[in-house]
Fold each of these.
Amino acid sequence: MAKIDVLSMLPEELESFALEIGEKKFRGKQIFEGLYRGATEFSQITNLPKSLIAKLEETAEIRGMTTERMLVSKLDGTVKFLFGLQDGEAVESVFMRYKHGNTLCISTQVGCRMGCAFCASTKAGLKRSLLPSEMLLQILCAQRETGEAVSNVVLMGMGEPLDNYVNVLKFLRLVNLEKGLNIGMRHISLSTCGLVNRMDDLARENLQITLSVSLHAATDEKRKEIMPVARKYSLSELMAACDRYTKATGRRISYEYALISGVNDTPEDAHLLGKLLKGRLAHLNLIPVNPIKERDFKKSEKEAIKAFTDITENTYKISTTVRRKLGGDIDASCGQLRAQRDGL
Ligand code: SAH
């Protein structure tokens, strides 16, 4: 029988679990606190009686994660991790130092089934979704390895977070707990390729996280060429879901747009994008595409990026930023280390 994954449980769930195995409720709280003090084995939670430790070892587990690789950028101190999971799979996380604090970009799935043409994480499809504990462990391990606290989390690593909805929601609740990692919802961003039905579910949760929506094109025709999800949901359906999200949460949406030379970076593309976002509570994040091995997508030229930004910012008054490249010397965009490791 699968063992209970205690790191995926809320304090109240651990209390019910303690009652179920014939213990006092407060033992659940002690287990919870022990986990966040860094226990990797039940025997390290020293305020538990030996009899309970034995019971826990039989029925439950503290899932582990190993650091398989850790690459530190000489340019800006960005750290790229390849973490090994208990079943032999691996995921990537990226630790970035910003003025406003340390940010960890975490993975939500091993692989991805969304199939975006420019993305390295989706090449071999989806292997499996991560457990809430496996998302938390990326933060706990990154903190341990760097000796620094993580204050912001972005769900922008491998995988589509809304394709692992239940576990991601549970993770958000866990990471937010005051007695746990205590990372505020406003310090968390979640990026989706636009799974409309799940965006509506998320809107109902009314969390104060930042939602990022990967647009990458301003017409259905072009979007379908690079993002298979566009065949399922049209841009008008997606934008309507974005509007419902903003209305329900009051939160500004951040739209991501990977600039690919000759594909979506002409002034005409910028005008179409400007028209699409105008009047919406929107921020636009332009990401010069990171070329991946299998595809010959190229980054847009500096002049094209400037012209594009001018149009969205000045003509359409959309708050626009161009993502600064961090960790340029360590392949810091996601999916590439795992692909190397597994020969994908
Ligand atoms: N599945 C989520 C998270 C993916 S990663 C989503 O689609 O939003 C976060 C962002 O990086 C997404 O906008 C994704 O489209 C983008 N991205 C993926 N590969 C990229 C690449 N090679 N260059 C630039 N951006 C990329």
Note: DSSP finds twelve helices and 14 strands in the chain.
Amino acid sequence: MTMFCYQCEQTAQGKGCTKSGVCGKEPLPAALQDLLVTAVQGMAQYAHRLQGFGIVDREANVQIVETLFATVTNVNFDPTRLLMVFRAGLKTIERLKAKYEDACRKAGKTVEAIACSVPGLNATDSAEDLAKRAEGIQIDRRVGRVGPDVIGLQELVMYGLKGAAAYLDHAQVLGVVDDATFAAFNEIVSFVANNPTNIPQLTAMALKTGEVNLKAMELLDTANTTAYGHPEPTPVRITPVKGKGILVSGHDLKDLEDLLKQTEGKGVNVYTHGEMLPAHAYPGLKKYKHLVGNYGGAWQDQAKEFDEFPGAVLMTTNCIQKPRDSYKARIFTSGVVAWPGVTHIAKRDFAPVIKAALAAPGFSADGENKTIMTGFARNAVMSVAGAVIDAVKAGKIRHFFLIGGCDGAKPGRNYYTDLAQAVPKDCVILTLACGKYRFNKLPFGDIGGIPRLLDVGQCNDAYSAVQIAVALSKAFGVGVNELPLSLVLSWYEQKAVAILLSLLHLGIKNIRVGPSLPAFVTPPVLKVLVENFNIAPVTTPQEDLKAILKN
Ligand code: SF4
Ligand code: SF3
């Protein structure tokens, strides 16, 4: 069985994973994920056409988003669950098709067939049969048909949508959905499903995807702040507390909240890991006294950290890695995440996680009390905007850096640690996403009481960072590109792609991206991005700092 995947930064040799994924993805789940994308294209095309008749199928829209989220890097490695999701997709395609045909009949319009890259698939087909059929839509085959630039751009759009799907899913689990955003999402999916080859049109759609993702992040911001209040600057303990524990990783705040409710009074402490760290800043979550701290760092350190954590572990979203045998029985997945042989929590009933935590030894003693700060989202930063603006005007703050994004395991990622440390003392660093762990435990001090390192939140809080930038630009009466602000981003998976497209949609220029450029962005496409947005790959911290601060 063959595969081809180049959707993330760690793709083999910077070209594509062909035998198995560097992430641990095997050819069978890879093929099933390719088919999930075709199922999404089928569902979205019908949903898009139904929208043309004024018919909104909310249930299908939610399913489209969930299905695409399952194809994001380090989310779902389990062929059994992927097959289940695929079959559900086929069923929905049939349901939407009937609804569309009915709408056509009633309106006296001709029924038109949708584009389908793998026709004749059946819900009764085995995973292996399906995988064989999926070979025809493998990226390298498609590249052979229309060339690498077109496929690279088609994939760029789909990866941006994958990132947006993750954020839309988090928002919808908190009850926030927006039919207009689903409609725009389905329109873009339908566009790609028709195998477009026009490069300017594809580029425009990539920017439109950025617009949809910006809306997705805004919806999630609304969902999070409505459910849990606005983040407040909060010290977070980074050392253990004596007793039993559960470590929660990933991005899903609703999972964390339900777990906190279900563990109340059970003698189990809850710790955050990776992207869950900013949860400590939300009033609606920090009120739980047994949410005691953050343990460990970013996702790529999980094997060692989960191994050493003497309790249960819950992965609520990406990034899951192959669990070691030492903790396979005490790690659990929820939502769209899955790993073969790992217990999946259904309907947020975390009883098995709590049981595993109680059966594990827990921490035998308290660690020394050390803390780091989080919670500098838009509301917190804007409440001190006056002091920040005065400090800039008085020349006390020379420049702002946004250093953050998705982290990974490659050695080249030390660039971000070195850069943060080399930033001059009269500059402020905003950070977000799991890339922050490269430097968030280092002392940065403050400028007249304003901390030099401000943790804005999770990757989706890029929305909050954009709001901060817009507020600053208004205060100074200049455009965002004229602000003393530089963005130096790290990318790993498709949410970072979505965020980058959102920033480009907003017209933000001069972004530096690393540690390497995406394999799917071919030289001609890169040329367009450089010409229009002056995007640049990171070089060395010294060279980049010199270039940024030269004005
Ligand atoms: Fe390779 Fe990344 Fe795809 Fe995994 S997600 S198979 S590492 S390109
Ligand atoms: Fe990290 Fe996976 Fe992307 Fe939310 S946890 S940023 S890489």
Note: The mean pLDDT is 97.
